[in-house]
Amino acid sequence: MREIARFLFGRGTRRRWIHLILGGALAMPYVFVGEIIIGPVTNTRYVFEDLLGQLLSFAVGLPLAALTAALFPLTRSLEANAVRALCGVDADRLSYAPARGRTAKERTAAWFTLHLGFGGIIAGMSLAVPPFAFVLVVLPLVAVFSDGLWGMPAAWDQPWVLALTPVVGVALLVALAACAAGAGALLARWAPALLGPTPGDRLAAAEARAADLAVRNRLARELHDSVGHALSAVTLQASAARRLLDSDPEFVREALAAIEDTTRRTVGELDAVLGVLREGDAPGTAPAPTLAADLDGLLRRTRAGGLRVEASVDADPEALPPVLSREAYRIVQEGLSNALKHAGDQVTVVLRIGIADDRLEIVLENPLGSASACRPGGGHGLRGIADRTRLLGGTVAAGAESGTWRLRVCLPLKGPA
Hints:
This is histidine kinase. By secondary structure, this protein is of the alpha+beta class. It has helices spanning about 1-10, 10-40, 50-70, 75-85, 100-145, 160-195, 200-245, 250-275, 290-305, 320-340, 380-390; strands spanning about 310-315, 350-355, 360-365, 395-400, 405-410.
């Protein structure tokens, strides 16, 4: 019994009743337009006073409502928000974007028609039934305290009839509540199917998620390459400076200057990346480093840590496309970072950058040191190089051969950027 009472008069049912009343209010302009059409057709002067004319006007207005929903895409957004607030439907089962495709417009039109149709019926019942039920409930009292029932049929003046009228009145109110609860439950059940995302909406959402993941992966690579290289270089520079503090003060000064320069540049790059991640914040102003802008600085900071780097650049960095120059810089940076971490500071790294067959070729070679084994949890650097190379349509090969670690990357000068 408690479940029935909750279904008929619970808080959720009352909110759905309000949703239905709103549907009835939205239906009124279409009913008025239907009256303008039905009046001349049926030769009725006062359509509002004729029950059949009102029903015909209502029937004519519903297709007009469906047409309105199909022509105005924002109808789905408005209806979805109303359903979420009043019908108790989970927000993630509804689509709040305007209806753009044919399927979405057809579903929105069907929903709007159902909402206004059920709403018009329940709103009309809500206006007519309660006053009539009240009259039936108080009818016995009127008969007791008056000489008769004015304007009522004589049969209603019978005692058994007067005894039943309150029961009928209460039954009418319960029937109204049952109709409103049933209509509200049906609309709540149909809402996800008609106002939920269509296959096109799901595809668009999947594409948006894929684009967001691509941006996040790119930012993760930027953070790994920039911060990882900086920490490796600073660690090696600080270690070399500590060892030579007493014997070579000039080298220590150079190492400290390189540490200062490396950390300053890395903080700028970190601020630029984090600025993109902070929603609502403007991106950082530090530009992404490129071969043309910072290859010499990268080599100078790496050598300041004690690592010997022999560089041969047979390509003009200024002539490279900006995207290619930026990604090539990160590849060189990650290659040098790997050498810092795994080869030790007593080896010589050979870097060659050149152009052959319309491809930019980057080769880094260094002898395998005693610390050549990968550290636990490592391996992200080579994966990042592979990701960058793949996105540019190039090829990458890395591995040990005859005691030498070799990284070779070929990037097309004109390719997918």
